[in-house]
Amino acid sequence: MTYATYNYAFPSALTRRADSSELFLSEYSEVERKQGNCFFWGRLTEPFVTSRCLLALSKVVRSNFTLTAAQIAAMRDPIVTAGNGKLRFEGFSGCAGVYARVDVLPQGHDGEFPECGTTNVDFNDQMLRALNLTGPGQPLMLSVGPREVGLYHAAGRVKERKVPLPAKWIKGLTTVQIYQSAAVCVHRFNRLQALRLFRSIPKGDIKVDYYLTLRGSQPVFTPVKSPAALCVGGLHRLRLLEQLLPYAQAMHVFAHPVGQITVWQLYFNGLRFSLSLSRECYRGFSGEGAALASLTDDVPAAWIEALDNYSYANQQFNPTLFAIEQHIAPGLVGSLSARLAAMGLLGFDLDDNAFFYRRLPFKLSRIMSLNPRLQNAEKLIAEGRVSIVEQTADRVEARVLGSSGTHHTVILDRHQARCTCQWSRTNEAERGYCKHILAVKKLTGWQTNS
Fold this sequence. Notes:
Helices cover 26% and strands 29% of the residues. With 450 residues, it is an alpha+beta fold. Helix 4 runs antiparallel to helix 9 (330-342), helix 7 (301-314) crosses helix 9 and helix 8 crosses helix 9 (330-342).
């Protein structure tokens, strides 16, 4: 007779509250968290289209629209996440202004998920050749583990080892997910409409803004601005999608309310490919700072750990549900999710309208080191350069001594934050707050509603 030994991470407990009692049963799992040897193993049901999507993703990663060839050579290839019945491959262009993701949905594979997890690998020439050799009807197997990704095809197998994740990508992952979570679907096109639309993209690099508009039922790109048109900066970057259009069933276009991002999502059988563009070519997502205001709020480490555990167990993150389950004020969950996003632990699924979980080897203590504006805000406070002139329940006014010796006025109210510095005047708070506003918010614990 064979006996099994069960080890529990913590004992079961009965928690009594004033109006109720809650029973928490300790769970046993034969696969310990962070120690699994395999995240996914199985057959891809659409091998040809999947291989083309992965090749397109690799093309995005190897592209750049502002950097030199030497700078792009330092960038790496996809982040791969397995969990909740889906495989997700993500990557940025070298300039971090283009973000792409391949989602292999449950109907796109026939496999198992022994453990959920994330790894970052380099798709070298051998892997790209294997993807190129995958033709229609040819079988393709995939394995994803904590230290490697394997591709098994008719000609043999290819394995790619884990590589370091660029810090620039972590910063980009922070911003792009926050922008995506605010984006809405503005257009839905079929394959023929999408193919015709892309034929209207001018040749060469495009230096001016173009606009997506409709002429009857047909979408077109035009340099002429109109009230209902969608502005697209760096339109030539969309050519990264051209090789996939003949296989796509549909294309949906999503846009941020104030134009910080456009997302172009292609749909296939069991697959999605999304391409997100920053407002302009020279503005990479890694420098936008959309999450900085939330990161100034002090949040107990225990709550962050609880949120991390919740997301790990569910493989997605519902802010409202988490706030209810953990008895946390809904307004504070935004800061919690911003911290997880800043660690690279949350992505956003536009179709599900929900965050998904990715587990990256990244420490909370490194958030500050990746955000110079936060560091500078902390320095202003430490050096006593922030003076509160007036603080009421509805308004804060402060004077901040800048690095050049100039005094800046910061005014916070329940709906906006303003500063007289040149950075704020130039960026109009579209790319996150300046260091002076961040310092005043941090010092006063001020919460802005919008």
